[in-house]
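Good morning,

Attaching, inline, the backbone tokens for the sequence recovery test we're adding to the shared suite. The designed sequence is right after.
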């Protein structure tokens, strides 16, 4: 039987693993009276066949194991060029009220796990870009250069500086950004690379992690069929692998969110997915795609400008946006940084996610400045800011979650 690569979380502070094989997650810090420090978690990649898995899980230091499965870019559903005449904040920046917020993200560290970034783009001038390429075995330092354009666009929405007189960034005061390239030029990657990138982002002190990607379930089924499994068996095995990876990302989220204690908590924000087709049939709604469905993740739906709508009223759920998300962000005709320079407009939940990540950065700054930052206060503030008032009347609450996030005022 063909052996597969498994992502194994071990709870053992004494284990020393080579960097190219694993990422050690340092002890989790719990604040408060009587606090204790959790044992070190070690993320290791092991090669074995599925028959060896039960024995592995019996080892006392193994918390869980999941096979590495294909992951893919949540591709934009449309693209349009942007002329040089537009000035002022984009409609998305206005919709989340970042343009009127006293906060700009200064002092907050954000991580973008995507296709990388164009480090030469003027939108990122002056930002300390800490880059690593997790599509490579060793997580190449100073890698993470974007060859697709998606990561550049998402990063621009979170912390991009003004380009040609137009404000594209929700939190343009961010000075340090962690750029993990987890998807290649073709938009493909693996849960192994993303798991290592999540561990790295937590270790590097990320306050916010933005992920506009999803599990490639059809690709996993196709790979198993290619190996010779009948379609029914391949689908059954893929479902088991799917569930194992949901549990893996949930465990990683728990450690990432609590690694820095109340001093540096981490929020994980992920796109809901673009598989719904409401324009063809109002009932054609697909549920949130993983890893956004894992425990500990905040999933994001996309809203857009309807007919005669303004950034603060008349917004509607995007027809492609998956249902069941936690929060919503502007995701239709979003202008941001284009690979190679200039601007481009994309549509997708991938575009909504960095808006929410940017607003989260503003809330982090506000709570840091006020001395009120804890793991609970920042998530409560972000979710509590969400409003359905800018949306059309009668919008399905399942489609937009708590509503459109709003920046601190």
């Amino acid at each position: 039987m063909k052996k597969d690569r498994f992502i194994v979380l071990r709870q053992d502070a004494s284990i020393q693993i080579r960097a190219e094989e694993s990422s050690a997650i340092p002890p989790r810090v719990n604040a408060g009276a009587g606090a204790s420090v959790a044992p070190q978690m070690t993320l290791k990649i092991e090669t074995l066949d599925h028959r060896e898995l039960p024995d592995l899980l019996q080892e006392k230091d193994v918390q869980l194991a999941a096979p590495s499965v294909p992951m893919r870019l949540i591709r934009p559903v449309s693209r349009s060029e942007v002329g040089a005449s537009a000035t002022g904040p984009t409609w998305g920046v206005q919709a989340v009220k970042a343009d009127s917020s006293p906060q700009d993200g200064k002092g907050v560290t954000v991580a973008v796990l995507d296709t990388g970034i164009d480090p030469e783009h003027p939108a990122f001038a002056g930002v300390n870009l800490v880059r690593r390429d997790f599509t490579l075995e060793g997580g190449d330092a100073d890698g993470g250069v974007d060859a697709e354009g998606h990561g550049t666009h998402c990063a621009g929405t979170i912390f991009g500086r003004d380009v040609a007189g137009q404000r594209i960034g929700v939190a343009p005061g961010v000075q340090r950004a962690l750029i993990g390239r987890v998807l290649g030029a073709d938009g493909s990657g693996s849960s192994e690379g993303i798991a290592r990138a999540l561990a790295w982002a937590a270790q590097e002190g990320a306050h916010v992690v933005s992920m506009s990607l999803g599990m490639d379930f059809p690709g996993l089924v196709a790979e198993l069929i290619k190996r010779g499994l009948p379609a029914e068996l391949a689908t059954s095995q893929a479902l088991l692998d799917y569930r194992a990876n949901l549990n893996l990302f949930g465990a990683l989220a728990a450690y990432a969110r609590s690694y820095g204690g109340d001093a540096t908590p981490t929020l994980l924000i992920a796109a809901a997915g673009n598989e719904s087709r409401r324009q063809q049939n109002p009932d054609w709604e697909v549920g949130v795609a993983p890893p956004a469905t894992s425990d500990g993740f905040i999933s994001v739906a996309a809203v857009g400008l309807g007919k005669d709508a303004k950034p603060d009223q008349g917004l509607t759920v995007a027809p492609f946006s998956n249902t069941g998300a936690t929060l919503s962000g502007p995701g239709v005709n979003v202008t941001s940084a284009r690979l190679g320079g200039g601007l481009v407009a994309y549509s997708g939940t991938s575009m909504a996610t960095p808006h929410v990540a940017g607003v989260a950065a503003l809330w982090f700054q506000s709570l840091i400045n006020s001395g009120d930052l804890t793991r609970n206060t920042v998530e409560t503030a972000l979710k509590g800011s969400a409003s359905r008032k800018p949306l059309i009347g009668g919008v399905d609450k399942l489609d937009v979650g708590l509503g459109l996030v709003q920046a601190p005022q």
